[in-house]
Here is the input.
Amino acid sequence: MEPTTRKEDQIFKIIDSVLKQVFGEEATTFIYKYIEQNHQLRKSEFSKKIDIFAKGFEECLSSGAFVVENKILEDLAVTYGASKKAKFGKEYDFANQMRLLLQKA
Here is the structure.
């Protein structure tokens, strides 16, 4: 398995774990179906197309997405030993924060 593939798998596992912790299995499945149906993005593509994932996730959860996205970023930072310095407010952009964090990982 290529290092990139392993990293993408790990990213999905973290996203999946956080969503299941917060929402449970059934609601997580609903979120995945929403993103797939409305944005043509399968679970296996989340880490490759983080912008599309973020857009679909934020549409699905509205303002509730922010807290969950922050938890995803925190878990990624812990996993990859990077320090998470997310910018909140108007500057906050989950997809960009993910990219910055993963560049440092």
Summary: The two ends are 18 Å apart (CA to CA). The longest helix spans residues 3-39. Confidence is low (pLDDT under 50) at residues 86-90. The chain has four helices and no strands.
